[in-house]
Write a structure and sequence with these properties.
By secondary structure, the chain is an alpha/beta fold. It has 17 helices and ten strands. Helix 1 crosses helix 16 and helix 11 packs antiparallel against helix 12.
């Protein structure tokens, strides 16, 4: 390895650079993250969690740099008691400039409640039609049938026409499979999307976006990628893709990554995620084990790919750990447990003792206090010429001094 190459590598250590961005087909799509912890997460957690605890978490999330946060849902407390105090929460939290706050409302009564709070924006900036592929799930979840949803399309489109809308979205839910009916095919999904698309176009309204939900965690990376390719080929004017992927079987982040690799820079990929990965629907059969993509893991992946998020990973990790305190149990994120990949001044100390427990692994944020009393086999300080070169650059010594210390290991 020549001096120039070695110097470049050292600079990456010191500057804490990400991995080089791998350009494919011109680059990645624009990525938007929607934080669902306060809604999707809290709706499956203990109803006794206080408003004060929720406020702490919501305000912490607001300070991370996340651009869009769903604060909860305006639904009946009879069946979702976790959202009984949503009005108090929205009235008391501290909005941060530059953050868009939204909420879920499943009917007009809920939308009327939500409209009382100017701080909340309607999450649907254009009208859309929606249908579940699983008739069992939609009956359990909203006491409606798939037929009812399809019958409602014409009403949605009529309202859009009368209000002068020019663009719309199409949407499918329970898209990749059902715990009651099994897997669905690409033909099943595409057929229902096409029926919606054709109705919008017949009404003179363009379709430029698609929403695909997966409440029971049936997504598989290659199947998700294939569906996105089919949509792009059939309807090239659709450039905005919103994926709501659950992680019941550990594939959601993999599927999101394949979506990133499938869509080009002309597209926008919207990904729903939840701090700590908490989330789930009581009607789907998995409860809290349905989970979601942990927001901290998604942000870490994007940043390492060279896709800027504007999110402060350190603050997001603190929010994830606060979320565990609020819900009273361990959550499922990885980056909050092991930390981001250490670089620059955050490289690990060479004389770390044995690190075995989750608590000890928190030394990346807590320092030596995290492993106080841990076993250590090192009778003398560990020495490394390679690390000495990195350390010299960190301390601002001349680059020539660093390069002169090469011991032939490179």
């Amino acid at each position: 390895m020549n001096w120039a190459t070695r110097s470049t590598r050292l600079k990456r250590y010191v500057d804490n650079e990400r991995y080089e961005r791998v350009e494919r087909d011109g680059g990645y799509p624009t990525v938007e993250i929607i934080e669902e912890g306060m809604r999707e997460g809290m709706q499956i957690e203990d109803a006794s969690i206080s408003v004060d605890q929720k406020l702490m978490l919501l305000d912490a999330l607001s300070m991370t740099g996340l651009k869009t946060i769903v604060v909860g849902s305006f639904v009946s407390p009879s069946w979702t008691p976790q959202m009984a105090a949503i009005d108090e929460l929205v009235s008391r939290f501290t909005p941060v400039s530059g953050v868009t706050y939204t909420a879920l409302a499943l009917n007009e009564r809920g939308r009327e409640r939500m409209r009382q709070y100017p701080v909340l924006q309607d999450p649907e900036d254009v009208p859309r039609t929606l249908v579940h592929l699983c008739d069992v799930f939609v009956r359990r979840n909203t006491n409606r049938s798939q037929h009812d949803e399809i019958e409602n399309w014409s009403k949605v489109i009529e309202r859009a026409v009368s209000s002068g809308e020019t663009t719309a979205g199409i949407a499918i839910n329970a898209a990749w499979g059902s715990n009651w009916l099994g897997p669905f095919s690409e033909d099943d999904r595409t057929s229902l999307l096409e029926r919606q698309y054709d109705m919008w176009r017949a009404a003179g309204i363009a379709v430029d976006r698609v929403w695909i939900g997966d409440p029971m965690g049936w997504n598989m990376p290659h199947v998700v990628a294939s569906q996105l390719r089919t949509i792009r080929q059939r309807w090239p004017e659709i450039t905005r893709f919103h994926l709501h992927l659950h992680d019941a079987r550990g594939t959601a982040l993999l599927s999101a990554y394949d979506a990133l690799r499938t869509l080009g820079p002309e597209c926008t990929l919207v990904l729903d995620s939840s701090v700590g990965g908490m989330g789930g629907c009581p009607y789907g059969g998995h409860g809290r084990m349905t989970r979601m993509i942990p927001t901290e893991d998604l942000v870490d992946l994007l940043e390492e790919l060279g896709i800027p998020t504007g999110v402060d990973r350190d603050r997001l990790i603190e929010a994830a750990l606060l979320a565990e305190e609020v819900v009273g149990h361990s959550l499922w994120g990885h980056v909050s447990k092991a930390g981001p990949r250490p670089r620059g001044a955050k490289l690990f100390a060479m004389d770390l003792p044995f690190i075995e427990t989750e608590r000890e692994a928190q030394h990346f944020r807590l320092g030596s206090e995290a492993y106080r009393g841990a076993r250590s086999p090192w009778r003398a300080p560990i020495e490394s010429p390679a690390r000495a070169r990195v350390q010299a650059v960190l301390e601002g010594r001349a680059e020539s001094d660093v390069l002169d210390s090469n011991d032939g290991n490179e």
